[in-house]
UniProtKB/TrEMBL annotation:
Stated family: Belongs to the oxygen-dependent FAD-linked oxidoreductase family.
Superkingdom of the source species: Eukaryota
Stored Pfam families: FAD_binding_4 (PF01565)
Keywords: FAD, Flavoprotein, Oxidoreductase, Signal
InterPro entries tied to this protein: FAD-bd_PCMH (IPR016166), FAD-bd_PCMH-like_sf (IPR036318), FAD-bd_PCMH_sub2 (IPR016169), FAD-linked_Oxidoreductase (IPR050416), Oxid_FAD_bind_N (IPR006094)
Segment forming the signal sequence: 1-19
Gene Ontology MF, one: FAD binding
Designated name of the protein: FAD-binding domain-containing protein
Domain FAD-binding PCMH-type: 6-185
Length: 435
C-alpha cells in the first residue's frame, strides 16, 4: 500500500538483485510483490531514493531489495497543472523538468533526497509555510497493495500526483548559506524564535540555524540557510538575522531551486546518523541544547578519527505547515493537535567513516536527543512529535502521531494488508503494528 509504514536504510549492503532485474514499471512491481509474498517467508525491502541513513531501512541482507530506481520518470502535465513523479526520482530530477518551464512544486530542499520517501514521511519544502507539507500537495498516489493489486488513491479525479505552483519561477528567490562564528549562537536563537513566531506575516520565508563542526575545518561554526520564495533582496523577514555581524561567508543571492538544492546535496561516502526531537519555540531549550551539543562535540573532538562532521539543525515547525492539511484531504501526522503552537524541529546529522566508529557517533546522536528531551520535559517545553523522515531506528515516530491517528493507520493496515505483508515481510522502517 502507498503508506507501507516501513522505513529502510541504505548502508553499504551489496544488492541482492542486479540493477537489470529491478522493476521497470508498475506491473513489474506488482509481479514482484506477488512473487515475493507467494511463499510468505521471503523478507524484502523497498527502496526509492535510498536516503534513510541506517542499515536495513531501504535495503536488506538475506532478502530482496525492491529497488525502484527505474521508475523515475518525471512528466509535467500542463492541462492539470501537476507533475507526475515516479518513486525512484530524486528531487533534482523534478526540478530539472519544472525549472526550464517556469513552474515549481513543493519539494525537498536537497537535490539528492528521494521523492517518494520524503513525501511519505511528510516533506518539508521551502514552500511549506505558504502551501503546507509536500504530502498535502499530492493529488493522487498509484499504489501496489499487499495482494499485488494496482490501485489509485486520490482526493479528486485529477490523475497526477504533485500540484504545481502556478507562477513558480526560474528564479526561486533569494537563498543560500551564511557561516558565522559559534560565539554568535544566542543571537541566532533569538532571531530564529522571532522568525518562527512571525512566519504567517512572511509565509515565503524559511530559515535553518545549524551549529556545525567539521574535523577537516577544525572550527566551531554556525551555518544558516536562508531561503525566500520570491526574488526580493534582503526580505524584512530576516531583519534580526541580517543584524548579526561578522559572517565568515555568504552565498545568498537570487538563485534557482536546482542550485540551492545542489548546495544541500547529501554525503554518499560516509555513514550517517539522523535523530530528531520536537520542542517548544523556547530560548531556554535552545540554549541548553547548545550547551549539551558543545559538551558532546568536545568529546568527539578527542575520540573521533578521520573525516567526520556534525550538524545540528534547528528549524521552525509552525502551524502554517499543518493548517491546510485537513482541507487538502488530511494526513496521518497528527500535527493539527498542536493547534496554534509554534514548535522547533531539532535534528542532529552526523557523518563519519569506519564501522568501528558507529557506536561513538550513533551514541553521540542519541545522547544529544536524550539529554535535550530530558531538559525540555523538566521545564514543560517538550512535545511528543518526532518527524519520521529524521528519526533514528531507535525512535518511535508513529506513536507521536497521537492515538487517533495510530488507530486509523492500524485499521487501514488491517483492511488493505490483512495478512500483514508490509508488517512482517518488510522489516525496514517503522511498523504501525508495533505501536
Ligand atoms: C541530504 C538530505 C536532505 C534532506 N532534505 C530534506 C528536506 O528538505 N525535507 C524533508 O522533509 N526531508 C529531508 N530529508 C529527509 C528525507 O525526507 C528522508 O531521508 C526520506 O526518507 C528520503 O526518501 P528516500 O526515498 O530517499 O528514502 P528511502 O530510504 O528509499 O525510503 C524511505 C522509507 O520509505 C520507504 N519507502 C520508500 N519508497 C517507498 C514506496 N514506494 N512504497 C513504500 N515504502 C517506500 C522505504 O522502505 C524507507 O523505509 C533529507 C535527507 C537527506 C539525506
Ligand atoms: C540554475 O542556476 C544554475 C547556477 O546559476 C545555472 O547553471 C542553471 O542553468 C540554472 N537553471 C535553469 C533552468 O535556469
Ligand atoms: C555577510 O557579511 C558581508 C560583509 O560584511 C555583508 O555584506 C553581508 O550582508 C553579510 N550577510 C548577511 C546575510 O548578513
Amino acid at each position: 500500500m502507498f503508506r507501507s509504514i516501513v522505513v529502510l536504510l541504505s548502508a553499504a549492503i551489496v544488492p541482492f538483485v542486479q540493477a537489470e532485474d529491478c522493476p521497470q514499471n508498475t506491473q513489474e512491481v506488482a509481479l514482484a510483490i506477488k512473487t515475493l509474498t507467494a511463499s510468505s517467508s521471503c523478507k524484502f525491502a523497498i527502496r526509492s531514493g535510498g536516503h534513510t541513513p541506517y542499515a536495513g531501512a531501504s535495503n536488506i541482507e538475506d532478502g530482496v531489495t525492491l529497488d525502484l530506481q527505474y521508475l523515475s520518470a518525471v512528466e509535467y502535465d500542463a492541462t492539470n497543472n501537476a507533475v507526475n513523479v515516479g518513486p525512484g526520482a530524486q528531487w533534482n530530477d523534478v526540478y530539472d523538468v519544472l525549472e526550464p518551464l517556469g513552474v515549481m512544486t513543493t519539494g525537498g530542499r536537497s537535490s539528492t533526497a528521494g521523492v517518494r520517501g520524503l513525501t511519505l514521511g511528510g516533506g518539508i519544502s521551502y514552500f511549506s509555510p505558504e502551501h503546507g507539507l509536500v504530502c498535502d500537495n499530492v493529488r493522487e498516489f498509484k499504489v501496489v497493495l499487499a495482494d499485488s493489486r494496482i490501485v489509485t488513491a486520490s482526493q479528486t479525479s485529477n490523475p497526477d500526483p504533485l500540484t504545481v505552483l502556478k507562477g513558480g519561477n526560474n528564479n526561486f528567490g533569494i537563498g543560500g548559506l551564511v557561516i558565522y562564528p559559534e560565539s554568535t549562537i544566542q543571537e541566532h536563537f533569538k532571531a530564529l524564535i522571532k522568525f518562527a513566531d512571525r512566519i504567517d506575516e512572511n509565509p515565503r520565508g524559511s530559515a535553518i540555524v545549524m551549529p556545525v563542526y567539521q574535523s577537516s575545518a577544525g572550527a566551531d561554526l554556525i551555518l544558516n540557510a536562508y531561503d525566500y520564495a520570491e526574488p526580493v533582496p534582503r526580505p524584512a523577514a530576516y531583519n534580526e538575522f541580517l543584524a548579526i555581524p561578522g559572517n565568515i561567508s555568504d552565498t545568498t543571492g537570487i538563485r534557482n531551486m536546482s542550485s540551492l538544492a545542489a548546495e544541500l546535496a547529501g554525503a554518499t561516502t560516509h555513514s550517517v546518523y539522523f535523530g530528531t526531537l520536537t520542542f517548544a519555540n523556547d530560548l531556554r531549550v535552545m540554549t541548553k541544547a547548545h550547551e549539551i551539543y558543545m559538551d558532546v562535540v568536545s568529546n568527539l573532538k578527542v575520540k573521533g578519527k578521520g573525516d567526520w562532521q556534525i550538524y545540528v539543525l534547528y528549524q521552525p515547525l509552525p502551524p502554517a505547515y499543518w493548517r491546510q492539511s485537513v482541507a487538502k484531504g488530511g494526513n496521518s501526522l497528527g500535527l493539527e493537535h498542536f493547534g496554534d503552537q509554534v514548535l522547533c524541529l531539532y535534528q542532529p546529522y552526523i557523518s563519519w567513516q569506519g564501522a568501528e566508529q558507529d557506536a561513538l557517533f550513533e551514541g553521540a546522536g542519541a545522547d544529544l536527543v536524550n539529554r535535550i528531551r530530558g531538559y525540555a520535559e523538566s521545564i514543560g517545553a517538550d512535545n511528543p512529535y518526532l518527524y519520521l523522515n529524521y528519526a533514528d531506528k531507535t525512535q518511535d515516530p508513529l506513536a507521536g502521531y497521537g492515538a487517533e491517528s495510530v488507530k486509523r493507520m492500524k485499521a487501514a493496515a488491517e483492511k488493505y494488508d490483512p495478512v500483514g505483508v508490509f508488517q512482517n515481510l518488510v522489516p525496514g522502517g517503522f511498523k504501525i503494528s508495533t505501536v
